[in-house]
Design a protein that fits this description.
There is one protein chain. The protein has about 220 residues and is α+β, with helices and mostly antiparallel strands. It folds into 2 domains: about 10-165, no CATH class; about 170-215, no CATH class. The protein contains 4 helices and 10 strands. It has a 4-stranded antiparallel β-sheet, with no helix packed on it. Strands 3-4-8-6 form a 4-stranded antiparallel β-sheet, covered by helices on one side. Strands 9-10 form a two-stranded antiparallel ribbon. The two termini are about 25 Å apart.
């Protein structure tokens, strides 16, 4: 059985003019999210859902060459997974800065009820969005919202739900995610009962045993 998936949050579309070649443009982006964990493994990170059909993501370099928009960040979203013995997949963070006026059409789902876990696994983080610059907004849905050159749009998609008790997760698996910058040390301690110390990061085995032994029933 697989945990619930945090579906990609719908469509992030931008339209405006001029494009680099002077023509109007309308760009639709179905951004991927984290997939739920299952009995045999962790959830997939940043996975496109089948409901988006044949929509494909363009590399940042191609995107920037075609549209007056600069990609300032494109990475897996840290601490977005649903904790579990097998963790959910991580969502995606994408940030854009407009080089010309445009309009935003936004449809993001699963913000009130994010992807949930199974058999003791935790829920994932839901989606988030922020516009900064000419306005400061955190709407999850918008219809032709006017944006100005210089505005930034930061979109975080949700993660996938976890499977099983997070305090039963292999500490070395937690450590790998910490070293990769996907799980913070605080989250490792609070959600997985794993103490990470030192630089380079390493599992503090004694402190981890105490954390897991002292967890409330």
């Amino acid at each position: 059985m697989k945990c619930d998936i945090s579906l990609p949050p719908g469509l992030l579309a931008r339209g405006g003019e001029p494009r680099h070649d002077g023509a109007p443009y309308f760009y639709i982006d179905a951004t991927p999210g984290g997939w739920g964990a299952h009995a045999r493994g962790d959830g997939e990170d940043g996975l496109m859902s089948a409901v988006n059909g044949s929509i494909k993501l363009q590399p940042a370099e191609v995107f920037e060459a075609k549209y007056p928009i600069r990609v300032t960040e494109y990475a897996l979203r840290p601490d977005s997974e649903g904790p579990g013995r097998l963790r959910g997949g991580f969502g995606v963070r994408r940030a854009f800065q407009l080089e010309a006026d445009a309009s935003l059409y936004l449809w993001m789902e699963r913000s009130v009820t994010p992807a949930w876990g199974l058999f003791g696994g935790g829920a994932a983080e839901g989606p988030r969005m922020r516009i900064a610059g000419s306005q400061d907004r955190r709407d999850l849905k918008a219809n032709r919202l006017p944006l100005r050159a210089g505005d930034t749009v930061t979109m975080d998609t949700g993660g996938g739900g976890g499977w099983g008790d997070p305090f039963e997760r292999d500490p070395e698996a937690v450590l790998r995610d910490v070293r990769a910058g996907l799980t913070s040390r605080e989250r490792a301690r609070e959600r997985y009962g794993v103490a990470i110390a030192g630089d380079p990061a390493a599992v503090d085995a004694a402190a981890t045993r105490e954390l897991r032994r002292g967890r409330p029933a």
